[in-house]
Amino acid sequence: MIQSHDSLVVQTLGRLVIPVIQLYSVYVLFHSQFGPGGGFVGGVLFGASMVLTLLIFGAGHANGLIEQMAFRADGLGLLLFLGVGTLCIFFGELFFDYAALQLPGFDPASRRSFGIVVTQIGVAMDISVVTVLIFFCLSPELEGSWKNELGA
Amino acid sequence: MNWVLETVLRRPNFLAFILLFLFGLHIMVADKHLIRKLIGMYLVQTGLMLFFITQGVKTGSTVPILLTSELPVQPAAYANPIPAALMLTAIVVGVATLGVAFALVISIYRQYQTLEEDELVRKMQ
Amino acid sequence: MDLIVTLPLLMLVLLTAAGAVFVKDLIASVLILGAYSFFLALLWAWQGAVDVAFTEAVVGAGLSTVFFLLTLFSVAQKETTRRSYRFSWLLMSGLMMLGLLMVYGAQGLPPVGDPTSPPNVHISPVYLERSFEETRTPNVVTSVIMDYRGFDTLIETTVIFTAGIATSLLLWRHKA
Amino acid sequence: MRLNLPALLFVIPFLTAVALPLIGLFRKHWCWSVALASLSMMHVMSLMAFNHTLEMGPIRYPLGGWLPPIGIEWRLDGFSGLAMVLISLVALVAVVYAGPGVRTTLAHKAAHLYTLVMLLISALTGMVMTADLFNLFVFLEVTALTGYALVAVAGGRAMLAAFRYLILGTIGASFYLLGVGYLYAATGTLNMADLAEKLPGLWGSTAVLTGLVFIIIGLGIKMALVPLHGWLPDAYAHAPEAISPLLASLITKVALVALARIMFWILGPDVIWDEVPVMVYLGWIGAIATLAGAFLALSEQNIRRTFAYGGISHVGLVVMGISLGNLTGFAGGIFYLMTDAVMQLGLFFVAGAMASHYGVREVAEVAHLRGRTPWMTAALIVTALSMVGIPPTGGFFGKWYILMGALEMKNYVAVGVIILGTVLTLAYFVRILEKMFVEGSTVTRQDASDLPWEMRFGMGTVTAGLLLFGIFSDPVISFIRTVAAPPGF
Fold it and tell me: Has residue D165 been placed in a domain?
């Protein structure tokens, strides 16, 4: 079990820094069509903020929400990505042809743009979850009980 | 041997790539410490990225983010986006490989308490 | 002349790479490796590949370093400072031949930065010209990885997913 | 929908892979059945796709609707259609066989294990169908990563074997990517059809030659061509008994399919023996690999390692077959590749059952099996006949056509290699079988439980498959010659 850090300075700093990192990661994710960034970077940054949360507030924080997510949500992002791609088949076009997405009031170029945004979110979700998952698996203090429960 | 020098000196990026790639490869094979092998692997992967990015450089161009005020776009004004796109993929693939490699290293260490290859082989007998 | 910037950066990259391997303590060498990634990111930002530079700085200098450190923290100190290297003439000569082959091949490569080289004139201009009107995405790298070559990205996300599954498969400890 | 067959062929196993961890949370014992259902569906679709290519010709599938040089292209033609049918069928049988093994030894990890298996299968699907060099690299990495994890899950010595596999596999992938980089720098494209158009003017370019050499080295590591085979025997000998048949029968073969795709469809048969004589050298390497693999198999004591070296030897034989330089050799090589996938499946089925149910892992211990396992013995004998190349089995006809091709080309070295390889293969099977039949076993051990039906089903299918390959060798060969052959042959 990862213990929470007992220093008040660290905890206060964490409260300040973590939201900023998360905000920045969301910015990087959604601004990637206009500047550098994208799903990978945004996802890794978001994952890093969650890892930081774990390191500062301990693994039991908020009913172990992050751990639960790390071990169960693996693949949801991929499912979103794949879902958008497969939806294009059902709209009668080719795999991953975002222009086929039937969005009223959108011309093909905007539909593609929309497709890019949604798939970026999928990538970011998957990467942030896996970042936390790998962090958990690699971290040395892994004799925790919640893990055994999940694995059973 | 003249052509070697000539080819290499005209391409400093390429020289750096060759050095990184061969050095990393050498460490991957010759060093017996599992983690140092992975450092070698990291050098090999990043060296390859250096090689690819070099293919996309255009003198007198800027980053491939279009200025929408200047349409139609002049392709010569922007760097080549393909190597960058490919290497984004390669970076993520590299880090995933590293993750699996570390999982292996840690599970090996938990069972055998050593990371030195020859010693591992001895302990496994 | 952009060599003024590139050459020092390349030398820093090579120096840090050598340092990462030759330093005795592995924790130090991992930190040097972080610096190595950072210099590479600077180099790529200078060469016009900002997206790669950003990703390398976050993923290479950040995430890989964290993975390395986590691994090193879970092994005893004896393991992080030991050296074991075996020199072999066979390997050396093999690498020599590989290097010569690479240089031989490099003769046929277009000069660095040539705007008329095949990669710069064949397909990439199409992306640059059409990205905005077809996908409303000014960042061409994003439109290439997420739309024109979007399928590569799906597989790449799969690689990450695979890594997650594989790590938890290998490191989960179960009650019998 | 028919147009989307290539995409659906990939999506079915892939979607199952993504869904399996979630299914595993609620119903762990469903994973196996779900994987089986998905693979059967995939097999039916691969037959449909195959039929489609026969009737309507190849499908060139542009992913995302972007026409080929711009986007990624997949190609479903006779060659990849045939490979798809083979992959889906072999994977189905291998997963049926894996059921009881996973249930007894790895039950708590079943969901993740089957996820990796399905990911492996979908990545192999992609490797066969893709017509884009970089896309192939990404699929190669997925295949490799799942392979490392599936080997390492056995624990113990398998972990070091997996680590070495990882190091060598990454070196292979890096060489492949380096080769792609050289080709990209020289031509500016990654699409195979586009490359095939661009390359003819560039045979003098050193970058193209170097790129090809690096691609061959990279894929050579992936398919364990002899000087580069170091990772394979340990990895497959220590992998879990239930999983190793799947790994052994498919991974190296699909890398070989990818190499054939690059050689014959990008470069073309006119070029690879004349202007860029890569195939001449590959033929020599293949000949050396055939003999070296068989010698190593003969000197090995562990059963699974023996069989793994047998597979290495056969990869060499296939490479030699397709590089003979005529259509007979190519058809024989591809036919032998298909047969060998089934033979490896059979050998590792038997070796896995021996290890998990009777505790037999070394050649010397085979005597314990005498008279106790009629099913397994029959499967082993048929597979051995096919490995050696004795008619009515598929292995005979594969070797026969390669031999015919060699005689047509007056390549007597290849003829000699095939005959010597056959003799050596016979030698290492005689060594195993004589233990079973000739040397009387005095040790009476606790009678092991009879094999579960899944394992018997697997062995029976393989036996039947090898005999069917033998009986229907003529139509398959003529099919390869007409539909699956590269243009220009």
Answer: no
Residue ranges of B 52-111 with Cβ closer than 8 A to chain D: 52, 55, 82-83, 86, 89-90, 93, 96-97, 100-101, 104-105, 107-108, 111
pLDDT > 80? residue A70:
no
- List the end-to-end C-alpha distance of chain D, in Å, as a whole number: 33
Above 80 in pLDDT, residue C146?
yes
Distance CA D105, CA D101 (A): 6
Number of residues written out for chain D:
489
Chain C residue with Cα closest to D191: C123
Contacts of B98 in chain C (CB under 8 A): 64, 67
Burial status of residue A105 (CB atoms within 10 A of its CB: 0-12, 13-18, 19 or more): exposed
Residues of D near A (CB-CB distance < 8 A)? 1, 3-4, 7-8, 11, 14-15, 18-19, 21-22, 25, 61-65, 108
Does residue A126 carry a pLDDT above 70? yes
Q: Which residues of A touch C143 (CB under 8 A)?
A: 33, 116
Q: How far is it, in rounded angstroms, from Cα D61 to Cα D74?
A: 5
A137:C51 CB<8 A: no
- In chain C, domain spans: 1-82, 113-176
Q: Taking all residues of chain B, what is their mean pLDDT, rounded to a whole number?
A: 87
Interface check B34 vs D, CB under 8 A: yes
Q: Is residue D67 part of a domain?
A: no
Closest CA in chain B for residue C64: B95
Kindly determine whether residue B64 and residue C128, on different chains, have CB atoms separated by under 8 Å. Answer: yes
List phi, psi (to 5°) of D224.
Answer: 60, 50
pLDDT reported for residue A147:
43
CATH of domain B2-124: 1.10.287.3510
Q: Are C151 and D72 in contact (CB under 8 A)?
A: yes
Residues A6-20: tens digit of each pLDDT: 778 888 888 899 999
Q: How many domains does chain D have?
A: 1
Residues in chain D, pLDDT under 70: 1-2, 371, 439-449
On whether residue D352 sits in a domain, the answer given is yes
**CB pair distance less than 8 Å for B92 and A34:** no
In a domain, D419, yes or no: yes
Q: What gap in Å lies between CA D287 and CA A14, rounded to an integer?
A: 64
